[in-house]
Amino acid sequence: MYTRIHRMAIVLLIVILLGGCTWKQQKESSDPASPQPVLPGEYFMTHHLMTDQGLIRTSFAEQHIYLSESLGLWMDYLVRKKDPNSFEKQFHVLQDQFLLDHHLLSWQIESDQKSQVNALVDDLRVIAALQKADHLWQKPAYQKTAKDIAQSLKDKNMYKGILSDYYDAAANRTSHTITLSYIDPAAIKELVSLHIFTKQMASHQLAILKHAPRQKGFFPKSYDIKKKAYSFDQEINMIDQLYTAFHADLANVHTSAIMKWLKTTFKEEGKLYGRYKLGTLKPSVTYESPSVYALVILYALKQNESEFAKDVYERMKELQIKDPLKPYYGGYMNEKDTHSFDNLLPLIAERELLNESVIQ
User: Fold this and answer.
1) CB atoms within 10 A of CB 48
2) Is the pLDDT of residue 36 over 80?
3) What are 249-290's pLDDT values in tens digits?
4) Each residue of 8-27: pLDDT tens digit?
5) Helix (H) or strand (E) segment spanning residue 15
6) Residue 167's beta-bridge partner residues?
7) φ, ψ for residue 34 (rounded to 5)?
């Protein structure tokens, strides 16, 4: 009896504390009429992966590594949540920690050392988040920073008129390959709205997606700009394929074969794996990935497949620690470790499901 009462008291205390966190963020919100509660995944991020300086650790490893990927995904989430105060803090993290002298982002900070290489996909994601934030809260500094990054992408990160994977400032070298999943039409559209790209320049980027060949409905991994050649991997990396399919859909490229395969496979297996063999479409790994499920959810919502998105969400949530008494409540753990990517993407997907009223 004592143990049961004691356990209930602890659960009640955690609920009260979470409610306090929620109340505080609601109070600070610029839109008090529609307060946004703190999700379990957000609680995990801020209590276990975020430092006092606002940097997001990639994992629990003793040697802390911070990625521009994590920064961009977190900024994306905060815009979707409409959380101006937290976004402003991340804006300062962007300016103080990640921006290099030439206005591109360091893709990785390790041992307080910034890499002199950027990652196109992360820079584009940050530009899009800054533009959305400026639209929401009318802060000119957001658009100015977005424009500085965009200008540097145009100046440093293009090969023969096409955005490429990275620019290495130390070697003054630009990649001549573009990973197809990096081509984000929504972010490229922002380059046009910032008057950095013309519509014709934007069209040249999207043409890589539109002209891509398929194998069993799936996209190539990359395009060699120098050789004008696409390249397929023998394994389907679901993260790459889902990002590419989502972006292709935004560019009005037909992707129904992928959606059909996802729905059929999930219905038959009750799950999706992280990688599949391209030749047989059989799993090549035994693990499930919360980030894969998150991207399926976002892609399904874009395709107006809300019931499928909800089904996948329920499977994704089975991988999350939902017991408030567990040390890593709200996290997606891999035994004793985790990865920021596998927590941030599910958080974005869950927030989008709430925004679309697919879940309550």
Assistant:
1) 16
2) no
3) 999 999 999 999 999 999 999 999 999 999 999 999 999 999
4) 444 444 444 444 443 333 33
5) helix 2-28
6) 174
7) -135, 70
DSSP H or E run through 24: helix 2-28
User: For residues 126 and 94, is the Cβ–Cβ distance under 8 A?
Assistant: yes
pLDDT band at 37 (very low <50, low <70, confident <90, very high): confident
Map out the domains of the chain with their CATH numbers.
39-355 (1.50.10.10)
Give which of 202, 199, 219 is closest to 158, Cα–Cα.
Answer: 202
Task: Give all strands (DSSP E) within the chain, no chain letters.
Answer: 65-67, 108-110, 113-114, 158-159, 162-163, 167-168, 173-174, 177-179, 222-224, 229-231, 235-237, 275-277, 333-334, 337-338
Q: What percent of the chain has pLDDT over 70?
A: 90
Q: What is the pLDDT of residues 57-88, one digit of tens each?
A: 999 999 999 999 999 999 999 999 999 999 99
pLDDT at 35: 57
DSSP-derived 3-state class of residue 175: coil
Residue pair 296/303 in contact (Cβ under 8 Å)? The answer is: no
Contact 175, 123 (CB under 8 A): no
Q: Is the dihedral of CA 246, 247, 248, 251 positive or negative?
A: positive
Separation of CA 153 from chain center: 20
Taking the C-alpha atoms of residue 346 and residue 182, their distance in angstroms, rounded to an integer, is: 19
SS3 222: strand
Task: Tell me the one-letter amino acid at 276.
Answer: Y
Give residue for tokens 């976004």.
Answer: 87
Query: Span 304-309, mean pLDDT?
Result: 98
Six-digit token pair at 341? 């990517």
Q: How far apart are CA 121 and CA 112, in angstroms?
A: 22
Number of DSSP helices (H) and strands (E) in the chain, helices first: 13, 14
DSSP 81-149: HT-HHHHHHHHHHIIIIIB-TTSPBPSEEETTEE-SB--HHHHHHHHHHHHHHHHHH--HHHHHHHHHH
